[in-house]
Amino acid sequence: xxxxxxxxxxxxxxxxxxxxxxxxxxxxxxxxxxxxxxxxxxxxxxxxxxxxxxxxxxxxxxxxxxxxxxxxxxxxxxxxxxxxxxxxxxxxxxxxxxxxxxxxxxxxxxxxxxxxxxxxxxxxxxxxxxxxxxxxxxxxxxxxxxxxxxxxxxxxxxxxxxxxxxxxxxxxxxxxxxxxxxxxxxxxxxxxxxxxxxxxxxxxxxxxxxxx
Length: 212
Prior knowledge:
Strands 1-2-5-4-3 form a 5-stranded mixed beta sheet. Helices cover about 55% and strands about 20% of the residues. The chain is α+β, with helices and mostly antiparallel strands.
């Protein structure tokens, strides 16, 4: 085993240690609990489902290593902790376009959560067509300091597109994505139009109910 391979293996071992991962798992759980409570409270207030799905995951050591190499970061556990924002990830799926922005405002009002960065890939999608609202939050864990959690917030239509693209393109290193790039982008644009149309339809329905 050469020195470079040894460095990679050491990094993978450290990133997979329970002591390293546990604070990130706790940060995910705490974030999910907060989002669950928000969903209950606002669903009652709105008279409809505010959030339709909440899931979480911890980035695998292999995925962390690949991202470190892609970003040309030094392959060290401490660098990963400092530079990677998505070791802990929580995905939130809402029903309507305005709900994703409302959720960000609610999170900003939480005294326990520190929002350090937001990336709006809805108003400005990625080149692939990917749409989602990303929030990087610092979540305090008792006795373990604060851990970053990337919260991805999107509509059900956006999530459908992202799941398909992730499965067939993002994770397939030898997959010829360029053949389908144009179609994916067109689908993403169509999805955004549908989301806007569904929001307008909901607003019209709500207005009609009030007038009754």
